[in-house]
C-alpha cells in the first residue's frame, strides 16, 4: 500500500509537470467516458433498476400468446379469472390491472386523472405497504359497483390534498360518483411501467364499469377482449420455466373449453423486470439502446487511441529518464507499475470529469423528451452508474497505457545514454512509429463506422420527414375532450359535441371544426376485426382480439360531421358523414382504399356492407378515402375505417379545428369557448397537428441527433489524433527534412512527402472502416426508413468528410515542415 501511495504521488507530480499533455489526455477520456455514462444512465433506468416491490425477482408478467405469430398480448378478464382459480405449485398468487381515466372533484375544480382498476390482490401480491390507511380487501373486488373505494398515489395526495393526514375516509368524486379514500400508496411506487404515465389512483376491479362506457365497460365479460395486464408471484422454490409449463396447460384447457375466443391462444410469463416496457416497445428500445451503446463505445475507443498516442509520444520524450533509472538498478516491474499507475490516474481524472459531463448531458437529453413521456423516470446516478463509471475509467486508463508502458522497455539504453551525453534529443524507434500509425488507422476506421451510422439515420430522418401524411397538417389543431371524466350520458355528450363544433366554428379565423375519437399520427385509432358481408364473425372477435381466418385487422376511428373536410383528408369516391347519419338511421361507414382492396379486390366498395368487430350492425360503405398515415409517419399504408359518432358514441373525443391562418393565436380563444359550455369539465391544452407531427418524429430526430453528435466528436478526436501523430513525426524527423532540403529538395516535394506518408494510415483506416460499417449496418436496418442499410450516400458522405478533415489535419504540420530552415535543422540535430 505504501508503494502504491508513492506511485500515485509520483504520477500526480509527473502530470503536473506536463499540464498540456495532462489536459489533452484527460479531456479526451472525459468526452468518451461522459458519453458512455449518459447512455448507461438511461439504460440503467429503463432496464436494470428494480421496481420498489417485495422480492421483485419472484414477480412475472403474464401474457397471452398468438401461437400463429408468436406475438405477446394482454389477457381477457374471464381468462384471468379462470387462471387464478387454478392451483399449481409454481405460482403463489395472481393480480390483474387495467388503466382507466376519471375526473376528480375534491374541494376544487375537476382534474382529469389517469388511474388503474386492479384486482383486490394487487398490492398484497406486490408486497407494498401503504403510506396511509390500507389497501383493498378481498371482498371489495365484487360485486360490480358495490365498493366505491379509492387508493391515492403519493404524488396526488401531496399535490391535490396537501399531504392532509386526515385524507383517509374522506369522500371524493370520480366522474360524479362518490368514492371513499381508504389509503395512500408509498412515495416510491409509481406503477409497473417505467414509460407510461404513473397512475394517480387505484380503484378495485368492481368499480371498472362505473369509470368506463360503451364497449369498454363490457370488457370484463368479453373473453375476446385482450386488454387486461396480469402479474403473478412465483413460489420461492419455483422458476420461470415451471410457471410457463403451468400456464401452457391452463391455456390448452381454456382453448378446449372456449374454442371460439381462445383459438390458437396460449399463455406465457416473462420476468417482470423485462415487462416494465411493453413487449413491442422493449424490443425497439433494446435495439436503439444497443446502437447508442455501441456508438459511445466506439467513441471511447477513439478517445483511448488518442490517449495511447499521447502516451507513446510522452514515453519517447521520457526515454532518457527511463534509461537512466534502469541503468541505476531500477527493476522493469517497478517502472511498469509506475507507468500503469499514471494511466490509471489519467483514467480516474477523465472519469471524474466525465461524470460532470454526464450530469449536464443527462439533463439536456431529459429536457428534450417528448410531452407524452412521463417525468418520473428515475435518472439518478445510483451505485450501479457510479460503479460503471469507475470500472470504465480504470479499465480505459490501464488498457491504453499498456502499449506505451511496454514500449518504454524496448529501449537501446547505450544509444539513448550516448545521445544524451552528446546533447542530442531522444529518437523514437521504428516499432513505436508503427504502433502510432496503427492507432491512427484504428481511430479512422472507428470514426468511419460512427459517421456512417450517423449518416444512415440522418438520411432515414430526411426520408421520414418527406412522407406525405395524407392530410393537411398546417393550420390544424386539436382540443382533447374527455366527457367520460364528467360523467356525461351519451345524449348529453353528443349534444355538447355539436354545440362545441358550432361554437368554435363561429370564432373569427376558424374555417371548420369536427370531432374524432383519435389523434392523428400518434395512436391513429383502435384496431378491430373487420368482416365483409357474408363472412361469419366468431364470437368474441372485436377490438382487441387477434384476427381469425377471413378477418382483417384494421384501424377504426369514430368521427363527426365534417371530419374529412376539416382534416383535409381526400375522399376518392362517395361522401363523408352528414347530420342524417345518426342513431336510428341506416348504419354507415367510410373505408380507406387499402381496406377496400382487401375486402373487395377488383370491385367498387361503395354500397358494400361490412361489420366492425362485435358491432351487430352491418354498415354500408358510403365513402372511400385515400390512404393516409394514421399512427405514425413510418407506418406503411394500413387498412382503416371510420364510423359516425352519432351512431357509435365515444366519450373521449378530439375537437379538430381548421383555421384560415396561423392557428397559434386561436388556441387559447377556442379553448375558452369550449370551456364555457361546461366550466366544470376538465379540458386539456390544445395542440397543433404540427406539434403532434413533431412528437411522432421525436425518436428518429433524437437518434439522428445523438449519433450526429457522437460522429462529430469522433471526427474531432480522430483529427486531433492524426494531427498529433504527424506533428510528432515531423518533430522527430526535423534533421532528416533539413538534410533533404539542403541537398536540393523543394518545399513542394517535402510537402507532398509528408502528406503522402501522413495520409497512408488514413486510407487504410477508411478502407477498414467502410468494410466494418457495411457489415454492421445490417444490424440497424430495422430502425431505418426509406433507405437501405447499405445506402451509398451515407457511406460516401462519411468517408469523404473524414478524408477532408484528415487531409486538413495532415496539411497543417506538413506545411510547417516544408518551411523548415535547413541550417537551423542541421544545427539542432
Which parts are unreliable, with pLDDT below 50 for 5 consecutive residues or more? Answer: 419-428, 537-550
How much helix, percentage-wise, in residues? 40-55%
The biggest sheet, with number of strands, parallel, antiparallel or mixed sense and barrel status, is: 6 strands, mixed, barrel
For the secondary structure, the number of strands is 22
Note the total helix count.
24
Rounded to the nearest angstrom, the radius of gyration is 34 Å
Report on the architecture of this protein:
This protein is 48% helix and 16% strand. By secondary structure, it is α+β, with helices and mostly antiparallel strands. A hairpin with a 2-residue loop joins strand 7 and strand 8 (177-184). The protein is globular and about 105 Å long. Mean pLDDT is 84; it is low at 419-428 and 537-550.
Question: In terms of topology, how is this protein built?
Answer:
Layout: H1 2-17, H2 19-48, E1 59-66, E2 72-73, H3 77-84, E3 91-105, E4 111-118, H4 122-126, E5 132-133, E6 149-152, H5 154-161, E7 171-174, E8 177-184, E9 201-204, H6 214-217, E10 229-234, H7 240-257, H8 259-262, E11 265-271, H9 279-317, H10 319-327, H11 332-367, H12 383-407, H13 413-422, H14 430-465, E12 476-482, H15 490-505, E13 510-516, E14 526-532, E15 552-559, H16 563-567, E16 571-574, E17 588-592, H17 593-599, E18 609-612, E19 619-625, E20 640-644, E21 652-659, H18 667-675, E22 687-688, H19 689-696, H20 698-732, H21 734-742, H22 747-777, H23 792-818, H24 822-828
Parallel strand pairs: 4-9, 6-8, 15-20, 17-19
Antiparallel strand pairs: 1-2, 1-10, 1-11, 3-4, 3-7, 3-10, 5-8, 6-9, 7-8, 12-21, 12-22, 13-21, 14-15, 14-18, 16-19, 17-20, 18-19
